[in-house]
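Chapter review: from sequence to fold.
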Amino acid sequence: MVASIKFTAVQSNKYLRITDKIPPEATPTKSKLLTAGSETSFFTVDVETFDENTGLVKVEVSTDNATFTTHDENMRVVHRWSYPIDDSKLPKPKKERPAA
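The token string follows.
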């Protein structure tokens, strides 16, 4: 069975990339920009389940859609539940060096 999972953004806008961990050939989804606090900004992903209700995903986050860091390597997700993703694992912005 496949579970339909919804991800939302809290604290700030961010890009999410989700990888279903159950299939052996797991590949990440295309990333999607989520707007924090918006009831209409969500990322719905279908994932394989191991008990017809529960799946396992890797959640990656980014501020620029280029540099992703792992938010949760092994997040258990349940069919039709919604998961808010906070800023705790967002990559730190790179500081530009002053010109010499």
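Two observations follow directly from the output. The mean pLDDT is 90. Residues 37 and 49 are 29 Å apart (CA to CA).
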